[in-house]
Please model this.
Amino acid sequence: MTIIDGKKVAQEIRNELKEKVAGLKSAYGKVPGLVTIIVGENPASKVYVRMKHKACEEVGMNPKIEALPATTSEDELVSLIKKYNNDENFHGILVQLPLPEQIDEDKIIETISPEKDVDGFHPVNVGKLLIGQDTFEPCTPAGVVELLKRYNIETKGKHVVVVGRSNIVGKPVAAMLLQKKEGANAIVTVCHSAANNLSDYTKSADILIAAIGRPRFITGEMVKEGVVVIDVGINRVDAPETKKGYKLVGDVDFDDVSQKASFITPVPGGVGPMTIAMLLNNTYKSFLRKQK
Ligand SMILES: NC(=O)c1ccc[n+]([C@@H]2O[C@H](COP(=O)([O-])OP(=O)(O)OC[C@H]3O[C@@H](n4cnc5c(N)ncnc54)[C@H](OP(=O)(O)O)[C@@H]3O)[C@@H](O)[C@H]2O)c1
Model:
């Protein structure tokens, strides 16, 4: 059994990007810029935004944070996004979700120029993803596919079962692995909460991707021997023995499932670190597209 080390792979990607960004600086005299817009005081969002900012700096890109008060109106946010749509110094625009309730998330996502939509959430980019055109792949699904590639895990003709159909993980990862191309070409089944007997599906998976949001939901008896398991879940569970009083676990019961798996991602240290690495990759891609 191999534990897929997302932390290590993410660091490798960041190292590669650092070199590529240095190359851009000498070729074009400028580097990719990423603006992250955060509205309100959500503590988890603040942590994510800081992590993205730091990772951007580390690879030599130009990051900027726009922190707006929780009372910001939809019109104000729309105006700010439009400003960055027209600012040549920024190649990526990311609006940290969730947004306060007075702001319509769909409208905000649609305001971001598809050319700068490095999260890959704009309907134009979602459509391109589905029909197999070049686009910005959403970061977490892109991280999943990249991990499979870097561990040389064959996907062609394999049965991939995705548990979860969210717009940010389940649906896009299914669409990506379905494409008729290298690193994909899988037979894909997508499950959700209406599945009557989930095990009937998960047991037939060669590759199981769990994006459910329920701690240790997938158990050993739900998978077959030799399965590849990618656990996207990040769940907080009480752990009085730890300093913080809680710990993070995935959607997969790691101790149980790892007895049968051939490859498995841990939580933390699996898919999680890949998300930011893929965001940087998309920002780099956006910069290159702009130069062409
Ligand atoms: N960077 C990262 O690593 C990263 C990024 C994003 C998310 N995550 C984590 O990944 C997990 C999923 O996130 P998400 O945003 O995709 O969650 P979500 O929007 O809540 O979607 C959860 C999906 O799981 C399905 N589900 C729930 N209970 C089920 C059950 N009993 N049987 C089968 N399917 C069930 C739901 O089905 P219905 O559609 O029928 O409700 C839904 O499609 C969370 O733990 C989240 O924290 C991690």
Observations:
- Residues 140, 163-166, 168-170, 191-195, 198, 211-214, 232-235, 271-272, 275 surround NAP (CB under 6 Å).
